[in-house]
Please model this.
Amino acid sequence: MKTVFRQDILDGKVAFITGGGSGICRGIAHAMMAHGARVAIVGRKEDRLRTAAQELTEATGRACLPCVADVRQPDQVEAAIDRTIAEFGALDIVVNGAAGNFLAPAAQLSYNAFKTVLEIDTIGTYNVTRAAFDRALRDRGGHVINISATLHYAATPMQVHASAAKAGIDAITRTLAVEWGPLGIQVNGIAPGPIDGTEGMSRLAPGEFRDRYLASIPLRRFGTVEDIAQCALWLVSGAASYVHGETVVVDGGAWLPGYGALLGG
Ligand code: HXC
Ligand code: NAP
Model:
């Protein structure tokens, strides 16, 4: 993979990455492994995790542990973290990327649909971060990166569930940064814009909407998985050692046009 970072910056580090079996977080796993880390990737689909782990190890020469867990279930999360520490002897970096989303107007959303997205995204982020704190971060310090979005900065129709979920995640990022910074735990977030070739893009920017969306992005391109992976690397590289409690927007300026849309810009 192309990178501006020295290949050994994460030598000896261990990362626990939820959602690491696919899309953006698989890209983060790849980047961290390519820079020396050993990584556990976490999700519900065992087959996909096993295949991803094998491919990532072949690509990087580093160990990757596929861990089946539903982030909504604290006991499964705790078992996955225990397994990671037993396998690799440490846990230094947590990436909370597990999420669920779909387009649905609020008036057609069931109570359970709203609750499900908050449970996966927001409560899942808390469950994983808290279990990692108890088992490793409290004593050793480390990094937490919460994957957010820009949906809630203005207002995004058909996304009341995901907007509420990601706003909650940003609150977790800031609060834990204050509570855990003194322990040497750096807590940040990344808010990706539209990232091409991902499940999120195929669910949220279906074909007919794609061209209009592209034309509205100031950098005039969709993001890549590597764009997000490079930001994650930067956050844990030491180059960002005074960045704390921040959710870094990586979106080519996509959310900025705002009322510009009314002017056709
Ligand atoms: C309305 C829906 C729905 C849809 C499911 N539900 N899909 N409601 N529109 N398209 C409802 C169901 O009817 C059910 O409510 C409730 O949601 C829970 O559904 P389940 O299928 O039982 O839940 P579960 O098996 O836990 O699956 C969670 C899921 C699923 C979110 C629904 O799609 C999933 O696992 N997604 C993971 C992958 C994913 O979404 N990736 C994209 C992330 S992108 P009832 O009332 O019937 O019981 C992303 C981008 C953010 O987050 C920003 C981009 C710019
Ligand atoms: P994705 O490939 O669908 O990633 C979501 C991952 O979460 C999957 O690997 C999925 O694995 C896992 N997951 C879902 N529910 C889970 C649960 N209950 N327990 C454990 N794991 C679970 O989607 P993506 O588009 O790459 O999105 C990745 C992250 O970026 C998400 O946080 C998303 O909100 C954020 N984001 C994406 C975009 C975009 O353009 N794609 C934009 C903004 C933000 P299993 O199905 O195996 O469980």
Q: What stands out?
A: Residues 111-140 form the longest helix (30 residues). The chain has one domain: 14-251. Residues 104 and 158 are 5 Å apart (CA to CA).
